[in-house]
Design a protein that fits this description.
- The complex is a heterodimer of chains A (about 300) and B (about 280).
- Chain A has about 300 residues and is an alpha/beta fold.
- Chain A has two domains: about 210 residues, P-loop containing nucleotide triphosphate hydrolases (Rossmann fold), CATH 3.40.50; about 60 residues, Alpha-Beta Plaits, CATH 3.30.70.
- In chain A, about 35% of the residues lie in helices and about 25% in strands.
- In chain A, about 45% of the residues are buried.
- With about 280 residues, chain B is mainly alpha-helical.
- Chain B has one domain.
- In chain B, helix 1 packs across helix 6, helix 2 packs antiparallel against helix 3 and helix 3 runs antiparallel to helix 6.
- Chain B is globular and about 55 Å long.
- In chain B, about 50% of the residues are buried.
- The chains are: A alpha/beta (about 300), B mainly alpha (about 280).
- At the A-B interface, helix 2, strand 5 and helix 3 of A face helix 1 and helix 5 of B.
């Protein structure tokens, strides 16, 4: 297997007295989709700025396609979509994508298909100054997709998008990753990410507190499953007594179940027979895992 | 590399056309030139000198003030404005070097400015020719004026980029640009001529003053144009100085190009350190 497109090794960066990044190591391989999670100020944007070569790390190293950030090779390999992307107001969408396509030495014939892909074909000849935030974001994505980048950097790409275009957005990202690009995207809207990333990296006050697949994080974090058991009106009290947990409305009981106990709990539920009418199991959501990792460090420090 | 520079330049020209910069600058130059040409030359109508030559002499003074102002107004936004509006991140993340980006901006702005100057002064020249029936002797002078005006514009574009790369806010850059204009064009010139009046025949007037004059791109521009005009046609205080220069008039051109080159290099060096 070839070396990862993006290699971040023990990178630290301090601004004045604030340690924005502290010994962060993270690799992203070709075709891999990695979500970088963190609250505002956790260091996500600083990490992106380092990867783009806008600023230099105090220590540690970053390699893009084997080269330093900001070099010609690195700039050719990376496509970037800033958090709130802005364009000259008096240029049309098509002119803007053509501009970036030319800078990336991408033939002009690819411009229209790109606009089509992000759903801006109809607005291509309008000035970017008239675009909504969602349209600007999609225009930004169109230029980022030009020329099959080896590394796609997306900073909060879906902020300002409505849920439907978010879906479109992630299906585009899937296509790009399937075509062999490494994708690193930052986000703090978590629920939408679950099915869409291969790996989740969580930054907390400059430190990488987690870096694994969602399944691994679910197991490792030991955030319990939620089992919701539906009973009949007259049996709900008995169900609650026999299973424990909490009644959450007229006829349901919610149980928190550690992952290893899943099967024994399910056996106990089915033993109740006709008392139970239905049940469902929800995996720990990314939100819960995220909360777990982003507060754990704090707890550890206090104890 | 060259392709990227031309892409940036073409985009800059397109934006210049769209936000009416070209039209505005050309109109400004045209109106001033027409006023100077048609109103200013009417008393000299019976003198044998060509009206166009007289006009060029007045236009040289006009250009000295107006062209640097237009150039600085075009240039101040080049980097600070893009930083301010957040458009620069994407450009700097794409495969174009910062020097190439700056070179592209420079070429584009030079195109906008050049177009405005050719249009404004060209139209004014044609109108004056038509109205006064000028002999055409002044045509070469007009062409020289247009070309050196563009060179003057280039110098102040480059100086404007230094200002634009040094600050992060458009407003600050604009204030800096106006300040540069006031000092480098207006006050410097006033100061020099004030000193000349105070010491009209001394060592200063003969050997220091001409060099101080040529050291400023704006004064160098005017000096060069005045020196090459048929001196009989003009009776400005400057023409006397221009005739008695202790160096060839071409040194003035060297000053213009030197300023352009030095300021471009300085702007590129400052721009390289910018963290968007």
């Amino acid at each position: 297997m070839s070396a990862p497109v993006l290699q971040i090794d023990q990178v630290s960066k301090t601004f004045q007295s604030i340690r924005a990044l502290d010994g962060v190591s993270l690799n992203v391989a070709a075709g891999e989709r990695v979500a970088l999670l963190g609250h505002n100020g956790a260091g996500k944007t600083t990490l992106f700025r380092l990867i783009l070569g806008f600023t230099k790390p105090d220590c540690g190293s970053i390699r893009i396609a084997g080269e330093d950030p900001g070099t010609d090779v690195a700039r050719n390999a990376v496509s970037y979509l800033p958090e709130s992307v802005m364009f000259p107001k008096t240029l049309t969408g098509r002119e803007i994508v053509t501009f970036y396509a030319r800078l990336k030495s991408v033939p002009k014939t690819e411009v229209d298909p790109l606009l089509e892909r992000v759903g801006l074909a109809d607005a291509a000849d309008r000035y970017a100054g008239t675009y909504s935030k969602g349209m600007r974001q999609r225009l930004g994505l169109a230029q980022a997709l030009a020329g099959r980048p080896r590394l796609l950097l997306l900073d909060e790409p879906t902020s300002g998008l409505d849920p439907l275009s978010r879906q479109d957005f992630y299906s585009l990202v899937d296509d790009v990753a399937a075509a062999g690009s490494a994708v690193l995207l930052s986000s703090h809207s978590l629920s939408e990410l679950e099915a869409k990333t291969d790996r989740v990296a969580i930054l907390r006050t400059g430190q990488l507190v987690a870096n694994a697949s969602l399944e691994q994080l679910q197991a490792e974090s030991a955030v319990p499953l939620r089992i919701r058991v539906r009973a009949r009106h007259d049996s709900v009290v008995e169900v609650n007594e026999r299973l424990g947990g909490a009644r959450i409305n007229g006829q349901s009981v919610e149980l928190l179940c550690p992952v290893p106990d899943k099967m024994s709990r399910l056996a106990a539920i089915s033993a109740l027979g006709p008392l139970v009418t239905d049940f469902d199991v929800s995996q720990p959501s990314l939100d819960e895992i995220y909360r777990h990792y982003s507060t754990r460090a704090e707890k550890e420090r206090k104890s | 590399m060259t392709g990227s520079i031309l892409t940036v330049a073409a985009t800059e020209i397109r934006i210049g056309m769209r936000n009416r910069w070209v039209v505005l600058a050309a109109l400004m130059l045209l109106i001033f030139a027409l006023v100077l040409g048609l109103v200013g030359t009417s008393p000299t109508g019976t003198v044998k000198s060509d009206p166009l030559v007289v006009t060029v002499a007045s236009l040289a003074t006009l250009s000295m003030y107006l062209v640097p102002l237009i150039a600085l107004l075009l240039a101040f936004d080049a980097i600070a404005g893009e930083v301010d509006r957040g458009t620069i991140q994407l450009v700097l993340a794409s495969p174009i070097s910062r020097s190439a980006f700056l070179a592209g901006k420079f070429l584009g702005h030079l195109g906008v400015l050049g177009f405005a100057i050719v249009l404004g002064y060209g139209a004014a020249g044609a109108a004056i020719y038509a109205v006064t029936g000028a002999s055409g002797d002044g045509l070469a002078d007009l062409v020289r004026l247009i070309i050196t005006s563009i060179a003057l514009g280039a110098a102040f574009l480059a100086i404007g980029y230094v200002a634009s790369a040094s600050v992060r806010q458009t407003g600050t850059a604009a204030a800096l640009a106006v300040g540069i204009w006031l000092i480098a064009v207006v006050l410097y010139d006033l100061g020099l001529f004030g000193a000349l009046v105070a010491n009209a025949d001394g060592l200063f007037a003969k050997s220091v003053f001409p060099y101080l004059l040529v050291a400023s791109p704006a004064d160098a521009f005017r000096l060069y144009n005045m020196a090459l005009l048929d001196s009989g046609a003009t009776t400005t205080s400057l023409s006397g100085i221009a005739d008695a220069l202790p160096f060839p008039a071409e040194l003035a051109l060297l000053s213009l190009f030197g300023w352009t080159l030095a300021a471009l290099v300085a702007a590129a060096l400052i721009f390289r350190r910018l963290e968007p």
